[in-house]
TrEMBL record:
SUPFAM superfamilies per UniProt: Putative cyclase
Record-given protein name: Cyclase family protein
Biological source species: Herbiconiux daphne
Start and end residues of each stretch annotated as Disordered: 72-99
Pfam families membership: Cyclase
InterPro entries: KFase/CYL (IPR007325), KFase_sf (IPR037175)
């Protein structure tokens, strides 16, 4: 049986079921790390890989890759996704007025935040997406995620896993050298990922986390959020599933809301087909809404596109995703 096509133009745009199914079967990693596995491709990050990543730190320079977590965010309420609501429960005003009830003049401030776990820079965990009722590693979706949360592959299992070598592929600059931004609806191919890596002089190796900059966040900053959350965007083609599988990357993240190209590559109803292949079948952890602009500038200045990346999720028991503040360290 021939491998699925890696050419976006060869997708049957009227049959998402078949296009998804052929890739899910071809690249499925179920059982690869045992029946009890809860990490998927994060297993590619081992102690040796972390030592390799640590050796990349020569300057001590740190760049945050997180968007802000505040009310001025991209969310519009789709599926109850809202921007964070930050509320002060104790303030300096309370302290000045002496109404906090503390002795000898001490005062303090305290606060609370309410937000969906995937409202800004975040990881999609392995319990986030299912394929025909199956979760990662072939488990029944209803046995994994219930009203009590992800009982099997909750994001808390990854809290010590996500420190490794990071690689930035600035596809926006590679394909659009003047603007550094790809047009909405542009489907990035496997060949273009390889060509970008070659142009930058960087090699993708097992256990890496690959960061894909499309320039979509740059445009949102310039023009306003608009439809950044859920609307049209450049992103990875469904045909990159084979590239993701054979490179043995540990995870991937982009500067877009949805990681894959939007609208998706079909003329009939479809929704996030690449998610359906890579999360429940390949076991890939997916990052979205990362801020890669400053990193891209720093990499270009250094002529160096790899770095130590630390991006652990919060230890939220049973969560299917997590907000993060990923950092690149040079």
């Amino acid at each position: 049986m021939s491998a699925p096509s890696e050419v976006p133009a060869e997708i049957n745009r009227n049959n998402p079921e078949a296009e998804i199914a052929v890739r899910a079967e071809a690249y499925r990693n179920w059982g690869r790390w045992g029946e009890a596995d809860v990490l998927g491709t994060l297993n590619f990050i081992d102690k040796r890989k972390r030592v390799e990543a640590a050796a990349l730190v020569t300057e001590g320079a740190v760049i945050s890759l997180s968007q802000a977590f505040d009310t001025d965010g991209p969310q519009k309420g789709w599926r109850r996704r809202t921007n964070p609501v930050h509320t002060m429960t104790d303030t300096g005003t309370d302290a000045e007025r002496g109404n906090q009830g503390f002795p000898h003049g001490i005062g303090g401030a305290d606060d609370v935040i309410s937000m969906p776990l995937q409202c800004s820079t975040q990881w999609d965990g392995l319990g986030h997406i299912f394929d025909h009722g199956f979760a990662w590693n072939g488990r029944r979706a209803g046995d994994v995620v219930t009203s009590e949360g992800d009982l099997v592959t909750g994001i808390e299992h990854a809290v010590s896993a996500i420190v490794t070598r990071g690689v930035l592929l600035d596809i926006g600059r590679h394909l659009s050298s003047e603007s550094g931004e790809l047009p909405d609806g542009y489907a990035i191919s496997a060949a273009e990922l390889d060509a970008c890596a070659a142009e930058q002089g960087v090699k993708i190796t097992p256990g890496d986390i690959v960061l894909i900059r499309t320039g979509r966040l740059s445009r949102a900053r310039r023009e306003g959020w608009g439809d950044y959350a859920g609307g049209p965007s450049a992103g990875l083609s469904l045909t990159t599933a084979g590239w993701i599988h054979r490179t043995e990357i540990a995870a991937i993240a982009t500067d877009t809301w949805g990681f894959e190209v939007r609208p998706n590559e079909f003329d009939v109803p479809s929704f996030q087909p690449l998610h359906q292949v890579v999360i429940p079948n390949i076991g890939l952890t997916v990052g979205e809404m990362w801020d890669l602009d400053s990193l891209a500038v720093s990499c270009a200045e250094r002529r160096r596109w790899d770095f130590m990346l630390s991006a652990p999720p919060l230890a939220i028991t049973g969560a299917v995703g997590s907000p993060i503040n990923p950092v690149a360290i040079f």
